[in-house]
Amino acid sequence: MFQPVSLFIGMRYAKLAKGNGFISFISFFSIAGITLGIIALICVTSVMNGFENRLKQSMLQITPHLSVALPDRQNHSLYQTLATHPDVTSISRFKSSEGLVVSNTKLLAAKIYGIDDSQDTPLTAMLNSETVKQLANTKYSVAITRRLATELNVSVGDKIRLMLPSVTTFTPVGRMPSQRLFTVAVLLDNSAFHSQVILTSTSNLLRLNRIKPSSFNEFALYLTDPFKLDDLIKDMPELKTLKVADWKDTQGSLFSAVAMEKRIMSLLLGLIILVAVFNILSALTMMVSEKQSEIAILQTLGLTPNGVLQVFMVQGLYNGLVGSVLGVLLGLAVALNINEILALIGIQIIAGMQLPVDVSWLQVGVIFTLSIAMSYLATFYPARRAAKLAPAQVLRYE
């Protein structure tokens, strides 16, 4: 703990009651630099967290987090284990395929998902019950997004052809991709579906894939958090031999790029705090040079070298603490009201769109702790230099 006298003298120096103007100027900008750096870090990390969560919700809401091939749904013990696992929210029979959709005017790539009205899955939960029943009860019917319908120039009741290039059959003219005509039964308005999503019943999709229902054993797992996938596989290593695919196969590179961008932005903005910390070091070094005679007098009055060390560490930590507290308070205020602030100053990102914000208290705590730690480390050199001053040499010509 700091001695009361060291704390008292350190706080007097920190408030610059007797400091000159130049040292006062550097101290002010060290506090301002730490404050601005923390504000920028909190705002950027909060917005990046918001974008990451929005991507997670929009892109991983439909895509299975893990697909496995279980030999027997009813008797396989692993199925029961997964169904009761705390990280697993849903396990159900699932099939999806990448293919082509063809209309009279256009050919486009599409992602085809099978839905089953007998199972409660995240995919069926996004649809109303009438749509699910209509797809299940109408043979070779599909639901497509309204945007895709516009691109294909089709409407409800029109025919489109679905083709799977990866599934082929022999014909008199050679090998041909599996294909079949489907009727557009429903147009989807749900924004969670990207434009090239096509929904049909699982039985229809199995027929298109030339798979017998009795031999189909692929199941989709949805987790409470898709990023806990590695932990689940680590806890249950037998999933590695049964895994068919996971969300990282299709979306992993995108989320890796977002995470890398967030780390790089945090590192670059952290340099602002580092520069401000160097200002603390510079101000303390100049303060030690200016206060040599006062330090020597204090030592002759009984202040130990350790006490002198604590005096200047208190001064440096005061600047770091003030800057960090102001930065956290202002950073949270700006981050939580960033859309209102942008609207107030007339900045519009995209018409009708607001920046997503997700404040992570853990990240805020880490930023605050690192800022204090860097300020603490910056005090060591000038404080040790002050503690090593020899009173006799300093006061020789006084």
Largest sheet, in brief, is: 6 strands, mixed, barrel
* Rg over C-alpha atoms, rounded to the nearest angstrom: 32 Å
Helix content: 40-55%
Overall pLDDT score: 80
Number of distinct beta strands? 10
Low-confidence stretches: none
How are the strands of the biggest sheet laid out side by side?
3-4-8-5-7-6
**What letter string, H or E per element, gives the SSE order?**
HHEHEEEHHEHEEEHEHHEHHHHHHH
Summed up, the helix count is 16
Cα distance spanning the termini: 33 Å
Strand content range: 15-25%
Shape: elongated
The secondary-structure class comes to alpha+beta
Layout of helices and strands, plus pairs?
Elements lengths: L3 H11 L6 H39 L6 E4 L7 H7 L4 E6 L2 E7 L4 E9 L6 H4 L3 H9 L3 E5 H7 L6 E13 L2 E15 L8 E5 H7 L9 E6 L5 H7 L3 H4 E4 H44 L1 H9 L4 H32 L1 H7 L16 H18 L1 H8 L3 H4 L4
Parallel strand pairs: 4-8, 5-7
Antiparallel strand pairs: 1-9, 1-10, 2-9, 3-4, 3-6, 5-8, 6-7
Overview of the structural elements:
It is a single chain. This protein is an alpha+beta fold. It has 16 helices and ten strands. The strands form two sheets. A six-stranded mixed β-barrel has the order 3-4-8-5-7-6. Strand 6 and strand 7 (174-188) form a beta hairpin. Helix 1 (4-14) crosses helix 12 and helix 10 (247-290) packs parallel to helix 14. The mean pLDDT is 80.
